[in-house]
Amino acid sequence: MGEKTIQDINARIADGSVHVVTAEEMPHIVAELGPEGAAREVDIVTTGTFGAMCSSGAWLNFGHSDPPIKMQKVWLNDVEAYSGLAAVDAYIGATQMSETRGMEYGGAHVIEDLVCGKSVDIHATAHGTDCYPRKVLDTTVTIDDINQAVMMNPRNAYQKYNVATNCSDRTLYTYMGTLLPNNGNATYSAAGVLSPIFNDPTYQTIGVGTRIFLCGAQGYITGEGTQHDPSNNFGTLMVQGDLKKMNKKYVRGATFHKYGVSLYVGIGIPIPILNADIAKATAVTDANITTNVLDYGVARRSRPVLRQVTYEELKSGMIDINGNEVTTSPMSSFHEARGIALELKESIRKGLFYPTLPVERLPNEGVSKPMKQIKEQPTVADVMASRVTTIKQGLTVEDAAKVIMEGNFNHLPVVSDEDKLVGIITAWDVAKAVAQNKRDKLDDIMTRTVITADITEPIETTARKLEQHNISALPVINNKNIVVGIITSDDISKLMTRR
Description:
The protein is an alpha+beta fold. It contains 11 helices and 34 strands.
C-alpha cells in the first residue's frame, strides 16, 4: 500500500472517519493484521505518560507595576524564581523549595496553585534605576492577572527509566522514592507500553513542532530534551504549553519524603500511522521493553547494574534480585497515563485535536555525556586512618576503657574472632557504663547496627552519613566486613580546610 499523509489523516478527522486506537490496543491489531494491514486499518495511535518530571517549570510575565520595577530577585509564595531577564519576567522551577517551608512546598506547588486558580503572593526586590525606580514590590496575583504563563519543560517524557533498589543497610530517600535497606523494595517509572517515545523510537513523527497533549492543553515539542540519550533508549523531550489552558488533574505538585519537590506532568502524544514501519513500532509491549535495576546504595554516577527486567515483570509487582523476591512499585501512574491516551483518542475522534508532523526530526543517535570535572574528588582512602585499633567481642567494659585510654581515641570497633566487624563503642559509652556500674561484657553496651564507609567512597558521601546519623566516626570495611580503617569528622574537616 502507499503511505498515508498527515493531510489524509486530518481529512478523516474532519469527516469523522478517522480510526484511533491507544498504544495498549495496537499490539493486538498488528498481531492480527500484520504491520501492513494495521497501517491500512489504523490512522493514529495515542500514547500517554504521567509521572514526576523534575525538569519542569513555567515562564511568567507579571506586567509592569507603577512605579515600575526591574526585579532582581522574586519569590512566589516564598519560593524563589529566576529573574535574570527583562524587568518582570521570571521562571519558576518545579524543584525550587520554599525558603520557609522547605521541601514541604516548592515551585511545583506554585505551578499547581496557579493552574487551580489560587492566589499567589509575589515579593520582589531590585536595586532601582532611573527608569525602574522601585526597589520593593509585594502583591498577590492569580493566573488571570498574569500576561503569559507558559509551561516550558527542558526534560520530560523519558523513554524509560532505570529501576531503583538499595543494597545498603540503611534507608535511602531519593527521587525514586524511599528505598528500603537490603533490597527491601524496588521502584520504577515510565509508562512502558504507553511510553510515547517507545512507540516511535526512530522519531519519525515525534519532533520539533509535534502537537501534543500537555496537562490537558494542546502543547508542542520544542526540541530534544536535555540529557537526550537515544542510543541507549533514554530519549527525552523538551515541551511547552499554555499554563492557562491546563487541567489541574494533570499538573500536580509533590514532595518526595526527605528528598525534595517535583511536578507530576501528564503528556500524551499521537502517533500518525503513515506506513507499516510506524505501525510495527507501535506494536511494542511491556514484555519488549527492558531496563536496568540499579543499586542506589552506591551514591556514584555509575551505579552497579544488578540485572535487567522487563516492564511486564515490573508491573507484576515482584522481581527477583539475587535470589530474593523484591516488591516493585511505580513512581508514575499507569492509570492516569491510560486516561491521557484515552482522552487524547476521544479528542481526535471528536475533531478537537489535529496531529502535526515535526518541522524538524529529533536525533535518534547520540549519548548524554557525563560532566567534565577538572579535579579528582577525594575518597575515603585519601583521608582515613589505616592503623585502627579494634577490640574482640566478649571482652569487658574495663578492657575497652584501658584500650581507649592507652590509645587516646574515642571510637573502638568491636570484632569477632574472625576479625569481622560486629559493633562499635565510644569513650562516652564506656564512661556511661562505668558510671552506671556496668562493667561486664562489651556486648551489653556496644552499638550493633554500625554505619560504615567503603574505601572507594567519595568523601561527600561519608560526610552525609555522619551528618544524617549525627555521629563523628565511621569504621571503614572491605567486602569481607573486615575493618581496614576509620574516618572521623575531624579528618574530613581538616581535608576541607586544606582545599
